[in-house]
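Notes from the 1:1 (GR / supervisor)

We went over the backlog. Supervisor wanted to see one worked example end to end before approving the batch request, so GR pasted a single chain during the call. The sequence is below; no edits were made to it. Supervisor asked that the structure be written out right there so they could see what the output format looks like.
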Amino acid sequence: MANQPPCKDASHLWGGVTRTCRVLHAVKEGSAKGNPDASKPQDELVLVEHAKEDGGVVQIVYRNGGLVDAGALEMLCDKVGWPRRPISKVQTALANSFLTSGLYLRQQPSDKSEKSDKLIGLARATSDHVFNATIWDVLVDPAYQGQGLGKALVEQMVRTLLQRDITNITLFADANVVEFYQQLGFEAEPEGIRYGAVLLM
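Structure output shown during the call:
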């Protein structure tokens, strides 16, 4: 990690941070059993890494694929003020998604014992698997907003869809965040819809 450029100081979030640095390295992991993306490897990208005074490491990791805990997702929805949805329906939505991408807060203790991952952001996409995809449910825990994580989440998901040769990408968003997505290259659907906005890439 020696030669990594410094990141924004986030010591108020992490506690005991001695060094904060941004790292960009990707690792491949085996797919989780039962995951709709099971035939594809999980892609991981470490977005931010923090060394703690006790020798432990805290990371924010972007991950494609893998199982997402519906209960953890609903707790995240609570934090951003979204209405509660029945867990069984959330599980069905996740299972039927073409792609789920998450942001995880990963704690690695100094003794190298088992690491733990906490969901702090998510986006999912539905698709016809050939031409079209729509991105839904983009959210980041408010405690971790303002660090560019939402931007990274959407950009990485779009990159993954393009790598799978899906080039007609739309995104469903609340009307009050349309400007954020326009900065990422989306354009508002001229007619829009009543409870949000459809954005075209």
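Supervisor's comment: The beta strands are 17-29, 42-52, 57-64, 99-108, 116-127, 132-140, 168-173, 187-188, 197-200.
Batch request approved.
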